[in-house]
Amino acid sequence: MSRLRVSIVMPARNEEASIGLVLDEIPRAHVDEIIVVDNGSRDHTAAVARERGAIVVDERQPGYGRACLAGIARAHP
Q1: Reduced to 3 states, what is the DSSP secondary structure of residue 60?
Q2: Strand partners, 34
Q3: What is the chain's Cα-based Rg?
Q4: Whether the predicted model's global pTM rises above the 0.90 cut
Q5: How far, in Å, CA of 41 to CA of 35, rounded?
Q6: Which residue blocks in the chain are alpha helix, DSSP H?
């Protein structure tokens, strides 16, 4: 039986103060990849996410749905 792959897609906008705390709480043993979709942040959200090992996708078009779709498109099949 093949193993289930788990990807977390997390839209974020101006979450520099909290994104690191959230990413640190994810049980990495159960997750294959974490994708943070930076949806036009004006702070260091993307840099903090990268420092915590997340894959960062830029989605400049505003909107939660667009950010989710951009992350899903990046996830491994």
Answers
A1: coil
A2: 8
A3: 12
A4: yes
A5: 15
A6: 16-24, 45-51, 64-74
9: region left, alpha or beta (phi > 0 left; psi from -120 to 50 alpha): beta
The answer to whether residues 34 and 23 touch, using CB atoms and an 8 Å cutoff, is yes
Three-class SS state of 38:
strand
Name residue, tokens 């949806």. 39
* SS3 state of residue 28: helix
Within its chain, how far is the Cα of 10 from the centroid?
4
- Spell out the per-residue pLDDT of the chain, length 77, in tens: 677 889 999 999 999 999 999 999 999 999 999 999 999 999 999 999 999 999 999 999 999 999 999 999 999 87
Q: Give, in order, the Cα–Cα distances in Å from 6 to each of 21, 33, 63, 68, 74.
A: 20, 7, 24, 15, 13
